[in-house]
Structure formats: structure tokens, C-alpha cells
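Side project, low priority. Logging it here so it doesn't get lost.
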Amino acid sequence: MSENVIRYENVAVSTRIRLARNFADYPFPNKLKDEAAAREIIKLVATELNNVDTFDLYYMSTISEEKATFLKECYLISRELIARRPFSAVLVSRPEEEPVTFEEELAAMLNESISVMINEEDHIREQYFMRGFDLRRGYERLFGIDDIISEAIPFAFDRELGYLTSCPTNLGTGLRAPV
């Protein structure tokens, strides 16, 4: 473990790495009006990720308000994702041990979680949450997920601008890493 990680481990409560991506062959979510195309994107992403890990898929159009609020309060989804209910979904990594109580489920999500929001502001918002401060580990874990998706579905990318996103502040790498 590097000196910086050790030095900040006691200060940083959590780390989140986030990537914003859009697919080359689909209209961006703000222009996506076809529910069939939205479901196709959801199915493609879910299939690819479930080939390598175990994720729970939640269609925003079918989950309860309580579950949506819970996921939002854990920062696994956004209010924008909830607002796009007919078109959106989220994949959330399943903990290694199945939680029995609400407290165990919450602890597992706060300890280490992957969330992939589908058809929010961008086609996908990949997020990796972990306790403490280890940006390198978070970066490597999330980019593994990003590589799996990009091998199956080409991302919207420009040689000069980088990854094309709905918001100019995410243009380029699409990376955010708040601690």
C-alpha cells in the first residue's frame, strides 16, 4: 500500500469512481424516445456484466418507491434515473454473502458496490464505491467493467474530444473520482 493511501485511509470515509459513457449506435438518452431501444440497451449491458459477475437488475418502471429511495440514498442511483422510469434501469453488484437483514444489506452496499445506471443522462454511468481511500484499486476495478461493456457495445468516441457525453463537463475521459 502506498504512503498516500496509508496517510489518507483514516481521513477518507469513502471513495467513488464514476465513468460516463454513451453508445455509438443509439441516440443519447435525452433523444431516446423508443422504449424498445431503451430495453435493448438495458439487456445488452446486463447480459455482458452478468457474464463476468453477479448483478441485480432493477427496472425503474417496476421497483417500488421505497426501493428507489433506498437505492438513491445509498447513491447507487440518481433522481434523474428515477425520473426516466420507462427507459431506465440499474445493475447493482450482489454482495458475496447474501444479506439477511436490512442492516446487513446496507452495510454490504456501503462497504463495496458497483452500480451501473442505464439510460440516465448518459447511456451508462458506471460507479464503484468503496470505504477508505484507494483510488488506484477503484480505478482498476471500474475500468475492468468498462472494458467488458466496450468490447460488446462500441462507445461514442471522438479522437479529438474523447468519450462523447451528454454534459460537456464529462467530455473526454468521462471520469470523476470524489473522495
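Brief comment: The first strand starts at residue 14 and ends at 21.
Revisit when time allows.
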